[in-house]
Amino acid sequence: MLKLRNIEKCFKTKAGFTYVLRQISLDIAEGEFVTIMGPSGAGKSTLLAILGMYDHAWEGQFLFTEYPVHQLAAKERAMLNKRFVGFVFQQFHLLDDLTVAENLDIPLSYRDIRKSERQSLVADLLDRFNIVGKKDLFPTQLSGGQQQLVAVARAIIAKPKLLLADEPTGNLHSDQAREIMELFKRLNSEGTTIVQVTHSEANAAYGNRIIRLKDGWLVKE
Q: Which residue of 76, 99, 156, 171 is most buried, as measured by CB atoms within 10 A?
């Protein structure tokens, strides 16, 4: 499903070029549940952003199913992202001027789904995450944990082929974190390909493979 060949990313500084990722080559098959681990600054979140087609400033080859991402224009990459990818951001990235329910509806609005069906999907997910009472609140009115739950709900509501998660349980207490990981496991068993970044060995145990990065290099699989 995902094929990366010699992916590199760097920033230009006064001292020269600082590399964030170096010669990353890896394959992720459809239906896998992969964990990316490594110390802070290893390039984990950067790699995840490239996989999600949010970061365009890199070199190398990237195939997403049959699409050659490295050859596509930014607009084409954005369309692929909206059609196939769900992303749980570490900083939530909820839209502050939209309610919880409206935030959940955003991914559905990119697909050919009737408004009544979208409303039903939003209602079902609000109930599933026990946040029905929060549906008319704005993100700034929620706690960090509640915002995290909304962010996870938004990422999965359109049933993406690829789910990417950057520290998906970082702001949740242990019971909530376990529920989210069990949900991810269930989604994976139903065919969703998942790639998560985490420092948690417990979270990593839910997947079937660990990719380790250090100083931008792929050091161990």
A: 156
DSSP 77-102: HHHHHHHHEEEE-TT----TTS-HHH
Q: What is the pLDDT along the chain (221 residues), one digit of tens a residue?
A: 999 999 999 988 888 889 999 999 999 999 999 999 999 999 999 999 999 999 999 999 999 999 999 999 999 999 999 999 999 998 889 999 999 999 999 999 888 889 999 999 999 999 999 999 999 999 999 998 999 999 999 999 999 999 999 999 988 889 989 999 999 999 999 999 999 999 999 999 999 999 999 999 999 65
The count of structural domains within the chain is 1
Sequential DSSP letters for 32-80: -EEEEE-STTSSHHHHHHHHTT-----EEEEEETTEEGGGS-HHHHHHH
- Token pair in block for residue 28: 């992720």
Crossing angle of helices 174-189 and 144-156, rounded to 10°: 0
Q: Among all chains, which residue has been given the structure tokens 């365009």?
A: 56
| Residue 100: Cβ within 10 Å count | 28
Residue 157 burial by Cβ neighbours in a 10 Å radius (0-12, 13-18, 19+)? buried
Segments forming the whole domain that contains residue 120:
2-220
